[in-house]
């Protein structure tokens, strides 16, 4: 500022008014060029970005993350981001033992025994599990950051009701698959002791390790549960604000914007999307899932407080940069907008998403044989971007098993009780247990 104010002040007397105006215009236009350039460089936003508060010195990327993947909350998309990061940075991902399928023996309480020995010691974990702080603490490095994601309970319940209509015994019992009929009298259908009953009642709380059948009338239970969560989780993302969530996650982990690129995975086709049309129905869903509703409300509030701490405008700017970068990648991979297709129309079987039942379509992507702009086949990065959970988990296990067999240096042993035992003793997977969610 100094070099400009001084000559300007003198200019009053020494230079004509016209010249001073010219000088000011010059200063303003070079400033605007600077602003413009910094917007273009925002692919990887710099701490100097105008709307963002200055950060301390750049930290190295944080590579130890425990993502608690909750059900029907866009968790598959976050998992895909973490898997791709792990591959690019040679970070080991904990994967379930064969006997646990693609989830860590969910709905059982998580145990370090469920982890495949070829994936020890891990720095990232991102598959479905029922949270147990202590067991994860024994498995993961002590600098691990814990994150999770929640979704608004009304939309979430509609999704669960459709997705698990054949798996959850509660939902199977409901005549005509009618959500109205269920909500008119949930207790007529719900049996808390049945396997997979948690899909029907406060599933967020269940996934987080809480008691999903606790009375919402108990004024002490939820506040103390929330306090524990806040001690453990550095970030609770909100599915309704997915891109803002990724911005906070990127900042927490000091990752690059490039590490956060995604396409949405594991979505239902339009035929399978229901509609909670009345406010009365929505209110019943919230009453039935009162614990989840309060949990969501609390963490939605803290989420926006975190956004405000970073600066709303700063977050909004980075969201725009993220969306631009995602568009660029999608264009590179699909040669245009990717078309969502039912699994039967996807030629590459590595890209066919798993279908929970004949009544529900889960749509996915096919990659073009050649990207029209370049004529080259889409690269590995594109394949992984669109790869559904089941195939990606299998692929990662194969890859890490090969590496673990080649490894000469023995890995850090777990405390004695955590050393993975053979699968014997674990019950076989329930024949109808859903593999993905
Ligand atoms: C990852 O590991 C592979 C094989 O061990 C090695 O070739 C590669 O350089 C490593 N990459 C990084 C980023 O460490
Ligand atoms: C699972 O964890 C919950 C919460 O920590 C606990 O109340 C319950 O007893 C555990 N269940 C089993 C079978 O260990
Ligand atoms: C974390 O673990 C390392 C070695 O594994 C140890 O040196 C360090 O003191 C531990 N830090 C904490 C906070 O426990
Ligand atoms: C189920 O659907 C049938 C035929 O559409 C109808 O007659 C019946 O009343 C329905 N039952 C309930 C409980 O809604
Ligand atoms: C959902 O219901 C609302 C209100 O009845 C209606 O306007 C909307 O078109 C419906 N959406 C779908 C996808 O059916
Ligand atoms: C989440 O919080 C924001 C900001 O307070 C609010 O605008 C929004 O309505 C909340 N979302 C829900 C679904 O409650």
TrEMBL record:
Keywords: Glycoprotein, Golgi apparatus, Membrane, Signal, Signal-anchor, Transferase, Transmembrane, Transmembrane helix. GO terms for biological process: glycolipid biosynthetic process. InterPro entries: Gal-3-0_sulfotransfrase, P-loop_NTPase. One of its GO terms (molecular function) is galactosylceramide sulfotransferase activity. It comes from the Eukaryota. It is found in: Golgi apparatus membrane. Residues 417-429 have a biased composition (Low complexity). It comes from Pelusios castaneus (West African mud turtle). This is Galactose-3-O-sulfotransferase 3.
């Amino acid at each position: 500022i100094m070099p400009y104010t001084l000559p300007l002040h003198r200019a009053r007397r020494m230079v004509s008014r016209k010249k001073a105006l010219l000088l000011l215009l010059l200063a303003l236009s070079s400033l605007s060029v600077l602003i413009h350039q910094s917007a273009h460089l925002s692919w990887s936003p710099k701490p100097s970005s105008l709307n963002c508060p200055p950060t301390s010195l750049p930290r190295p990327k944080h590579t130890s993350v425990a993502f608690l993947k909750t059900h029907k909350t866009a968790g598959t998309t976050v998992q895909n981001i973490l898997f791709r990061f792990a591959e690019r940075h040679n970070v080991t991902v904990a994967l379930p033992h064969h006997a646990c399928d693609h989830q860590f023996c969910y709905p059982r309480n998580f145990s370090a025994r469920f982890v495949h020995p070829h994936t020890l010691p891990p720095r990232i974990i991102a598959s479905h599990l029922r949270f147990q702080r202590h067991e994860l603490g024994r498995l993961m490095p002590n600098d691990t950051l814990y994150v999770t994601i929640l979704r608004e309970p009304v939309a979430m319940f509609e999704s669960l009701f459709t997705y698990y209509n054949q798996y959850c015994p509660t939902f199977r019992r409901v005549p005509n698959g009618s959500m109205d009929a269920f909500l008119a009298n949930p207790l007529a259908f719900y049996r808390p002791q049945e396997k997979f009953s948690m899909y029907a009642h406060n599933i967020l709380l269940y996934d987080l390790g809480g008691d999903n059948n606790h009375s919402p009338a108990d004024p002490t239970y939820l506040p103390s549960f929330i306090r524990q969560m806040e001690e453990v989780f550095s970030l609770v993302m909100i599915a309704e604000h997915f891109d803002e969530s990724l911005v906070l996650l990127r900042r927490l982990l000091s990752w690059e914007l490039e590490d956060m690129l995604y396409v949405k995975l594991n979505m239902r086709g339009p035929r399978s999307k229901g509609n909670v049309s009345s406010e009365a129905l929505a209110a019943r869903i919230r009453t039935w899932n009162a614990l989840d509703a309060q949990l969501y409300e609390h963490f939605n509030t803290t989420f926006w407080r975190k956004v405000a701490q970073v600066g709303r405008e700063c977050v909004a700017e980075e969201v725009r940069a993220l969306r631009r970068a995602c568009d660029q990648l999608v264009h590179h991979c699909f040669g245009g907008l990717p078309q969502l297709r039912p699994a039967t129309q996807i030629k590459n079987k590595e890209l066919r998403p798993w279908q929970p039942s004949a009544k529900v379509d889960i749509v996915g992507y096919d990659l073009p044989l050649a990207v029209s702009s370049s004529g080259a086949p889409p690269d590995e990065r594109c394949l992984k971007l669109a790869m559904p959970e089941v195939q990606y988990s299998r692929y990662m296990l194969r890859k890490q098993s090969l590496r673990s067999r080649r490894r000469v240096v023995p890995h850090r042993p777990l405390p004695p009780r955590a050393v993975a035992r053979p699968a014997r003793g674990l019950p076989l997977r329930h024949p109808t247990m859903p593999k993905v969610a």
